[in-house]
Design brief:
There is one protein chain. With 380 residues, this protein is of the alpha+beta class. It has eleven helices and ten strands. The strands form two sheets. Strands 1, 2, 3, 4, 5, 6, 7 and 8 form an eight-stranded mixed sheet that branches. Strands 9-10 form a two-stranded antiparallel sheet. Strand 4 and strand 5 form a beta hairpin. Helix 4 crosses helix 7. The radius of gyration is 21 Å and the shape is globular.
Length: 380
């Protein structure tokens, strides 16, 4: 695993996270993928371990976990099941937003419910015509007395099918603004989106707001802070989770590939003795360790509150997601015909890995931002 840089406490927590993933996620991951859903039992398991809202302070029901431990948690969740890692990530993105930008009343009302699993949360930013260009959101919010009226559509929203609470981004008086919207609000409807390439257990949905009326008190932060502050900080958390989760996916591919190469014999010997297979295993190992160290560097940067912590997370997310895609492709190749069967976990990893290059900012967006960072870094 190459985790010698961890403190004894961090190493102990990592062992705990790995055991949880092996016990509660690995045996069910293929089923969640096939059924395109997840069970409430796994949510209860996460709650029982305190893994929902783990970054939130203990006063609101969280664990007050540091960034390194949280990264180790998301790596193991990602090794076990990317859809579950995604569930924890979006739940945490909403909890983080409420804790950082919400009113005291919003914190008291929602954070204990989210950390206890009584309220499942979803992050509603993407729209049918709006992806990477988040500034172009078309959903509108209009003041009407003491209420706000929402109109518009969100799409590709993870766990929209089961979420109880949505953090919704809309233009309010021309300014990007965030709102909390409960599922049973009149005018809100959810349509399931099935048949996705990967993260099939993430229960994506399309949300329609048809004169959806909410109290003005459900505004998060102030008008105009929705994109630059609320969404940006939440997406940074999401990228951090995606980066570590990609490392977990690559690790799963490495473990599956070494195990299979050790028992599959061709031409009179196990294929682990074939040089071209050894080359793929060597690259998989090296790339996974490299991506893990980049993620650890990003976590240390966050813990220290460094100015460039956001860019260090970008670095980790960009490299780790590309590593996951290559590792998954090689894992399928090593497994041969066995790797493309419906029962093979590596084909699920392959499909999930591609999604990691798209969510929380595409690889091309990451390259653009990191190219600008490179110019500044060299100058400094």
């Amino acid at each position: 695993m190459i985790l010698s840089h961890l403190s004894p406490q961090q190493a102990g927590r990592h062992a705990e996270f790995r055991a949880f993933a092996d016990r509660s996620l690995v045996p069910q991951a293929d089923r969640f993928d096939h059924e395109q859903s997840m069970s409430r039992e796994v949510v209860a398991d996460l709650v029982g371990q305190g893994y929902l809202g783990a970054l939130i302070p203990k006063e609101f029901g969280g664990l007050g976990m540091d960034w390194i431990e949280y990264g180790l948690l998301t790596e193991e969740l990602g090794r076990g099941c990317q859809s579950i890692r995604n569930f924890v990530a979006v739940d945490d993105m909403v909890a983080h937003s409420i804790h950082k930008w919400g009113t005291e009343e919003q914190k008291q009302q929602w954070l204990p419910r989210i950390t206890s699993g009584r309220t499942l949360a979803a992050f509603a930013l993407t729209e049918p015509e709006v992806g990477s260009d988040a500034a172009a959101v078309e959903t509108t919010a209009t003041a009407d007395g003491t209420d706000i009226v929402l109109r518009g559509t969100k799409k590709w929203i993870s766990f929209a099918q089961i979420a109880d609470l949505f953090l919704v981004f809309a233009k309010f008086e021309g300014q990007h603004t965030a709102f909390l919207v409960e599922r049973d609000t009149p005018g809100l409807t959810v349509e399931a989106l099935d048949g996705l390439l990967g993260l099939r257990g993430s229960m994506l949905g399309r949300i329609t707001f048809d004169d959806c009326r909410i109290p003005a008190a459900d505004l998060v932060g102030r008008p105009g802070l929705g994109l630059t502050f609320v969404a940006s900080s939440a997406l940074d958390l999401g990228r951090y989770s995606t980066a570590w989760g990609s490392v977990g996916l690559a690790q799963a591919c490495l473990e599956a590939s070494t195990e299979y190469a050790g028992r599959r014999a061709q031409y009179g010997t196990e294929i682990r003795n074939h040089q071209l297979v050894q080359q793929m295993l060597a690259d998989m190992l090296t790339d996974t360790i490299t991506a893990r160290l980049l993620c650890h560097h990003a976590g240390v940067s966050k813990e220290r509150g460094e100015v460039e912590a956001v860019n260090h997370t970008l670095l980790a997310k960009y490299r780790a997601s590309t590593v996951a895609v290559k590792a998954a492709a090689d894992a399928v190749q090593i497994h041969g015909a066995q790797g493309i069967g419906a029962e093979a976990s590596v084909q699920r990893h392959y499909r999930d890995a591609k999604v990691m290059e798209i969510i929380e900012g595409t690889s091309q967006i990451q390259q653009t931002m990191l190219g600008q960072f490179a110019v500044r870094a060299v100058r400094l």
